[in-house]
Description:
By secondary structure, the protein is mainly alpha-helical. It has helices spanning 3-30, 32-40, 49-61, 83-99, 101-112, 118-121, 124-156, 169-186, 189-198, 204-209, 211-225, 230-264, and strands at 75-77, 166-168. The chain is globular and about 65 Å long. Its main location: membrane.
Amino acid sequence: xxxxxxxxxxxxxxxxxxxxxxxxxxxxxxxxxxxxxxxxxxxxxxxxxxxxxxxxxxxxxxxxxxxxxxxxxxxxxxxxxxxxxxxxxxxxxxxxxxxxxxxxxxxxxxxxxxxxxxxxxxxxxxxxxxxxxxxxxxxxxxxxxxxxxxxxxxxxxxxxxxxxxxxxxxxxxxxxxxxxxxxxxxxxxxxxxxxxxxxxxxxxxxxxxxxxxxxxxxxxxxxxxxxxxxxxxxxxxxxxxxxxxxxxxxxxxxxxxxxxxxxxx
Length: 265
């Protein structure tokens, strides 16, 4: 295919992906009341699953009791006329993006498939399933761990008793969307490393060299978003370390592949 043909294929990829996102957004808009009440605003309630589990762990192992709460001290407000309507629309589009993610991956795979070897084309289903699984695991990780930990920390952070926490709706939704989508993308680390290693940009030795710095960053992030107890910090730290170590193993395997091909050739 010529360069212009590739651009045409890319254009239709973007068009089909956009249509899929809009369809998913329409479905989400239909169930917007459930999405807001039972999903988005759920971490604001003291009865949220994460708070209850951490409270039980704190009582059982005599840890920090900051998650044994009766209420989270802030209210959400909308200060513009179209605030709630605009929020509903953009939240539905974000939900549509999450729902359409496997389809977007499939479109991306079809676009790069002509440049792959026959044995690599056979891995299409494994690629779609593994990438989608990692993304949704990241979304759940962000929703059930990072987001409630962040909300609990920020809601209880106080510079003075004079200041009340009346949080703007856009600010709260921005935290939710940023946390969930970011965690979904972070969990794609093994897939990203796979392609970077295949292109020769990243090697296993490079990742091993900077492993200690990666661990420090992970521990800092965990310390910032969690209460000051070991259980909470390890709950966030361990999955991220597992992802990083899995990325090293993938890079090591990809670095060995060219050598095997050259020997066979």
